[in-house]
Amino acid sequence: MRDILRSMALDHRIMKRNYPILAGFYALAVVLSVVAKAPFLAVAITMVLTAPFIGTYFSLYEKNRLDRLYGSLPLGRSSVVVGRYAYAFVMMLANVAASLLLGLFLSLFVQDTATPFLTSVIVAGGFLYACLFFAFLLPLYFKVSFSKVYVFVNLPFYLVVIAGLLLVKKTDILTSLQPTIKYFMDNPAMVWVVGIGIGLVLLGASLPLSIAFHKSRESA
Amino acid sequence: MDNALDVVDLRKEYSGFTLDNLTFSLPAGHIMGFVGQNGAGKTTTLRLILNMARRDGGSVRVLGMDGLAEERRFKQDIAVVFDEIPFVDAWSVREVEAALRPFYDRWSTETFAGYTKEFGLPPDKKVKDLSRGMKLKLMLAAALSHEAKLLILDEPTSGLDPVARDEMLGTLHRSASSGCSVLFSTHITSDLDKIADDVTLIDKGRLVYTGTKAGLIEGFRGLNGAGGATPNLDEILVAVSKGVAFHA
Description:
The structure holds 2 protein chains of 2 kinds. Helix content of chain A is 82%, strand content 0%. Chain A is an all-alpha fold. In chain A, 37% of the residues are buried. By secondary structure, chain B is an alpha/beta fold.
C-alpha cells in the first residue's frame, strides 16, 4: 500500500506543472453550460476533457526519459500501475467534485432547463466516459509508446458516438428501451448507480491487463 | 558478502546483437570499470542488472540479493547515475529531492543539502536550466543521499569538460573509500586509469577480460612491441576492437 501511495505521489509531482491547463477546461465548461442552460453539463464537459489530460502523463514520461527513474527506484511494477490507476481515479473524483460545485454555483444564476433524469445522465455519463477512456487507453499506454497511442486518444469518444448512432438508426432500440428509460426517469438515482458501477467494472477489468503489459514491456 | 555484484552467464538476444553469457563479479568496496566500445553491450548489461530489460538467461545477485526475486530490496541499497538526467525537466533541484525522498528508507535530506551546496547547485534552479556538468552533479547528489552500497554509473562522463570529470572522479573515489562499491561503465578509459581497481572489458557482447586493472595491462604488455611502453586502457580497447586477444 505504501508503494502505491508513493507511486501516486510521484505521478502527482510529475503532472502538477500541467494542472493550470485544467482552468481552461473549466472556463470552456462554464461557457457551454451557460449557453446550453444546463449548469451540470459542466461535469460532463470537464470529465470528457480531463480524461485525455491525465493521459498526457505518458507524454511527460517519454519526454523526460522517466523509464530510467522508475528503473532505479525501489518500486514494484505492479505498484506503479495500480498507483497510476489510483491517481487517475482520484483526479477524476476531484474533477467530478469540483465540476459539481461549479454546476451548483452556475445553477444560482442560470435557469436549469434539464430534468433531474437528464442531469443524472449527463453527470454519470461523464464519469462513465472517463472510466471507458482509461479502461481502453491505459493498457495501451503501458503496452506501447505514447506517440503510437496518441492517435487513438479520442477513439473511445468516437466509438461511443458511432455505436449510439448505429443502435438508434439500425434498431428500434429506443422503442424497446422505453420501459427501461421510463424506469430510470422515475429513479434518476439508478442512473448514477449504473453509470458509476459500469465505470468501476471497466477500470477493474483493465487493471490486470495494464499490469501484465507493464511487466512484459522493456524500457526503450 | 564478498561481492557487491555477481553476474553469471547473463544473456540477452536482440536482432543483430547478442549479449553472450556474460560473467563477472564486483568485489565489495572496489571500483570496477566496465569498458567496451559503443555498442559492445555495456548499457544492455546495466539495464539487465536493473531489470529494465528481460534477460534471456543467466542470473544476477546484487549485494547478496537475487536480482529478480529481491529487486525492490536491492534497489533500496543501490544508486544509479545515467548518461542523461532521469528527472522531469521542469522540476527544481529542491523538487528532485522531494520526489525521491519518500522512496528510500535511509534518505538523508541533510546529506543531499550538503552535496548540493558542495556542488554549487541552487535549490530553486530547474533541471532544464542546468548545464551538463551540473545535471551530473545533481544525479550524483541524489545517488549519494541514501547510503547506497553499490553505485552504478552508465557513461556519466560523456560530454563533460575535464574539470567536471575530475570533480566527479574525486567524489567517486571518496564514496569508494567509505565502502561503497562502484560499477562504472565508460568508453573514456582515462577516467579508469585514475580510479579503477578492477576492469571488465567486453567486446561485441562477449567478455574479453574481468579482473584487476593491473592484470589486464599485464595481459596486453606486448601490445606496443617487445620492450615497448606499457599500454594504457585506451590502447587496449582499440586493440581489442581490432581483434587482438588477451593473454593471461
